[in-house]
Amino acid sequence: MEKPSPVYFTHEMAASASSSLGTHELKECDNNSDVEARDPLNPRNWSSARKTMLFVSLMTSSLLADGAMVWGGTLVTDQAMEWDISIAHSATSMNYGILLQGFGGIFAVPLIEAYGRLPIWLWPQVITMFMVLGATLSNDWSTFTTFRSLQGLFGTVPQVIGLPIIHDMYTSAEWPRMINIWGTTFLVGPFLGPAIAGYIGAGSDWRTSFGVLTAIYGVSTVMVILFGYETYHKPGRTTNQSRTASYFGIGNTLLPKGSTLRYWSRTVVVYVFKFPLLMTGIAILVTFTWPIGITTTIDTFLHSPPYLFDTIGASSMRFAGVIGALCGWAFGHFFNGWIFKRHSSTWRTELRLHGVWFPIGSLASGLLTYGLTMHFGKHWIGIAIGWIMVNIGMVATIVAISAYALEKYPEKATCVSAILNMWRTCGGFAVGYFQPAWIQRNGLGLVFGIQAAIVCVAVALTIPPVFLWERKRRLRVGAEAEA
Prior knowledge:
Blueprint: H1 11-31, H2 33-38, H3 48-67, H4 76-83, H5 87-91, H6 95-115, H7 117-136, H8 141-155, H9 158-169, H10 175-203, H11 206-227, H12 243-247, H13 257-272, H14 275-302, H15 311-316, H16 318-342, H17 357-375, H18 380-408, H19 413-442, H20 444-482
Helix pairs in contact: 1-18, 3-9, 3-10, 3-11, 6-7, 6-8, 6-13, 6-19, 7-8, 7-11, 9-10, 9-19, 10-11, 10-16, 14-17, 14-18, 14-19, 14-20, 16-18, 17-18, 17-20, 18-19, 19-20
């Protein structure tokens, strides 16, 4: 499960975003620069050590968001044997958790804006730690799945809260670098987590592996308690509240809670149905469905003939996903810089969406390579290459779409990030239920061929309409200006 909707910014995006809320904030900072520079409550004036430790704590939480949700991906065979169920059924224990990750992010947005960053970061982290502990101690599949589902609901918060924390704590010039560093947690987490889990499980059992995960969550939670601080800061809207009170959201913001919650709840709903976000969200849903299906079900195939991988081998295969994700991120990052420089004199935000064409080709080709390799029982290297190509396409596509959406709506970046994350997880939730039966009925080759075709058709039906919508909007604005 790929991140994040992970948030990828370039320096050009930060400059372009300043035309909206960023411009207002930068002007405000310019007008009050002397006051702000002396304000000890402003997180941007904190010491480098304090900011660094807070950011490292955020990174550990974000790494666990997806990495811990698919932690058991390499352990489903052992669990199936213990609970006397099929491996395919055992693998569905992650599905509800993946779905609730999207909705958990949506629910978090109004709370973050009303009560501040720290309490909405800390307490879901504490709850998630106990949900992982509950999963560790479970004695049947139903109980285990319930705890894993709640883990997904509460554990997704760092994927949303990281953006406002970085926005609060760093200057606009530092945003691109820090967001890109933070975003890497969404790339490696979904593949590194299952790999580590498998290595631990191979030397012990799945309960020990989840016990280690509980301990890791405990360490991360302690780091949040020790190094986490409230970063919300608006002149006239923040006070020098006590450290203890900040953990409970007391005095973090002076905003009226009821109206703030209502405003941001309405805003999230409104933005879900904004045409550009709706179209690009559907594109994300389709392009993420099949790669997440691979992530959650690949062990079923690797442990079966003709491959017969052991737990170590299946866990090591996850590094193909890491390689593909990092390559996809690199393509998206450099494409964003290149497209801006090429069209800087006539810049239009939707040009970033041209970054989806090559990735979709890679994704479709990877699905074919992956499916046909397994269909004909060829060497496992074909599986690895196919998975690399799939992840290049998946991550580079979200880079392009996130860049467009967050540049278009910079003043609602947290809300937009949560919405894109919701679309991603909806696709990941569904695929685990119908893909195994579909493969059994029609075979690997045909199924993955159809998936490749669906990806291409879906992107062709969603991305070009956004270009047309943007063009009509510019013409309408131009006509109104002339009138």
